[in-house]
Amino acid sequence: MAPLVLPHSRVGEGPHHVIAVHGWFADRGAYEGILRAVDRESFSYAIPDLRGYGEVRDAEGEFTTAEAAADLLALADALQWDRFSLVGHSMGGKVAQRVLALAPGRVRRIVGVSPVPAGALQFSEEARDLFAHADERPGNRRAIIDFTTGGRHPDAWLDAMVRTSQEVSDQKAFRAWFSSWADEDFREQIEGAELPVRVVVGAHDPELNADAMRATWLAWYPNADMVELPGAGHYPADETPLELVRAVEDFLRADG
């Protein structure tokens, strides 16, 4: 299927171009809570909807990280951005690495926020069943969000996160995306890449935490570092937005 120039929001007019990629449970609206705090003079952000989400909720597609990487490169071409940095939350972190594998010369820096690694994830039978049926079971979505944020947040917030995830995503695409971000393994295509990489994790994320990053991202990228946010779980943009902006932009700004 031909690449799609994804619908997107633009924020900022700075010389450092950045594409921010959302995760499994949200469309580009996942970043709305941090946009008033970003540096619009240093950075130009493009924040797209991936296929199956938001404005392209009904788009046809395979709903894979490889397809998304091709779509993001088509977006960069349309914006006339020859080189750019990538920010990716959760599933979006795996998509960002696919872009690197496809066009390594175009990527300046990567920031993974609670990011999925480039290798396949290991699930217990119970956990896989929980994730695999989250497309059709709102209770599964709620349980996943609650677990990955440390069981600390109000019921109303959890319920709102579930409602939003259902409203902005196509059920078929949501299911297909799980198979892609969870089971694909393209570690060999990115391991040893020397671009600067930062991972930002929440101290209350029980899975994609500091230990998981040391075993994957930090082991595979020789110029990687990590920031742990004490007040966050898996959703720093919601839980600790200002701390997230600081962790992301300080790193991107170091590129000059």
UniProtKB/TrEMBL annotation:
One of its GO terms (molecular function) is hydrolase activity. Keywords: Hydrolase. This is Alpha/beta hydrolase. InterPro entries: AB_hydrolase_1 (IPR000073), AB_hydrolase_fold (IPR029058), Carboxylesterase_BioH (IPR050228), Epox_hydrolase-like (IPR000639). Residues 17-239 form the AB hydrolase-1 domain. It comes from the Bacteria. The keyword Ribonucleoprotein does not apply.
